[in-house]
Each structure stands twice: as C-alpha cells, then as structure tokens.
Amino acid sequence: MATTIYASHHPQPSDNEMYYSAPADPTLTNDVLNLSVLQRHLPSTVSIGFLAPYAVVYIFSTTTQAWEKSGIEGTLFVVRLQDEGHAVVVLNRRGLGNFILQLKSAEEVDVTDDYIILQGNGGNNLGNGNADEQKVYGLWIFEEEQGSTKGVRAACGRCIVECAERAEATSNARGLNGVGQLNGSTQQQSTAGATSGPDLMALLNPSRGQSSDNTPTVQQPEMNQGQDILGDLFRKAGANR
C-alpha cells in the first residue's frame, strides 16, 4: 500500500478551498465539482463514495508511542479508482501536500472511538522514509453532537472498511497481488514492508495479538483553540455550497 503526497512550489489555498469560495457553474452539482478537483490530484478517480467535511491526519510514532500531527487536514474523500480500486484522500487546507492512501485489505483498517486507523508503506509520504517502511495513520474526523455531521465518523469508518473489503476481493479474484492505480496507470507496489518489522496494527490493538501492556496511549487532538477553527471551517464550507 502506498501513500502519495503531491506538493506545489507556492503556498496556495487547496483546490477544495478555492471551490468553496469561487463562483460555480449553477448547472454543476457539488459531486461533479468535487470529482473534478480530485481528478487533478488523482487522475484514476472514477467516483466519490463518501465525503467528510473536515479530517486531521495523524501518524503513529513508535518512538513516543503516541499520535503526532502530520500537518495535513481538510476535506476527506473515499473514492473509487479505475479497475475497482479504492483510496482515501484528504485535500490539505494548511500545507503543500495531500494525503492519498490506496486501500488494499480490511486487515489494514481499524475503527476506534477516536480514530480511523490505516496501515500503509511509508515511502516519501508525510516526511522521510523508505518505500518498505510500514506506517500507521490515524484519521480524526470532526463531527457535531447535533447537526449535519453527527455520526459522520462512524459512517466514514464503515465506508472505508467496506471499500477495503471490496478492493481485497477484487485483487484476489484477479490475482493482482498489489497492483495499484494511484497515478492513473498500473504500477507494482512493494510488499517487502508487509513482512518486515513489527505488526503496528497489533501494537495498536491488543486483540490482534499484542499484550495490553504495550498498548500506546491515544491522545485526543488539542481542541482548546482548534474547536472554534474547525467550527468556522465547517460553517464556511456549508454557507458557500
């Protein structure tokens, strides 16, 4: 599984932010406009299966045994790719790169009360590393106790698990063994990291075979000032749709 970060040379609002603030063709639906934006970053995108208005991407540190911010936050999409693949995309509102992770197996997805946890190869995503290094990402999704985003975290988790199961079934049926479509063309992905190093998903979830003594502390995102920021972003997005 590979995660890809695309960067530009000049700091600019993401395409998703520009979409919300710029006048749109009244004949086009939000889904059509969002799909157009996604296809600029991920040309193999065919359709959007789920949208969460605001998500923050964390990365699990094996050194500190805690979640650390990756610097990526924005609108989250679960998309279908060519050849029946699926991916999770977060269009970054605060930095130069986006989060793109192709789903391969439901065994690499775990849904908790705080995070949707995904496992994938490191490569050049979210900093330095080699393509065979296993990394664990936590997707924290903003939701309101009452309102249009109530329950969005659980719904997104179900969608990601279902898409991962379908992707795995399709891969097994076709005998692809790790062939991906992230860049719009078929490319073989390295599987060396899947068999080397510790099982990070087991480390996070004792029920997968790890002693509870080694379970890391899961920390909630700091929301003392961020709460208002998240609310403002969501209200701004809704007001301009």
TrEMBL record:
Belongs to the DCP1 family. It is found in: Cytoplasm. Residues 175-241 are annotated as: Disordered. GO terms for molecular function: enzyme activator activity; mRNA binding. One of its GO terms (cellular component) is P-body. Keywords: Cytoplasm, mRNA processing. This is mRNA-decapping enzyme 1B. The lineage of its organism: Eukaryota, Fungi, Dikarya, Ascomycota, Pezizomycotina. Residues 175-194, 207-227 have a biased composition (Polar residues). It comes from Alectoria fallacina. Pfam families: DCP1. The gene is DCP1B. It comes from the Eukaryota. GO terms for biological process: deadenylation-dependent decapping of nuclear-transcribed mRNA; deadenylation-independent decapping of nuclear-transcribed mRNA; mRNA processing.
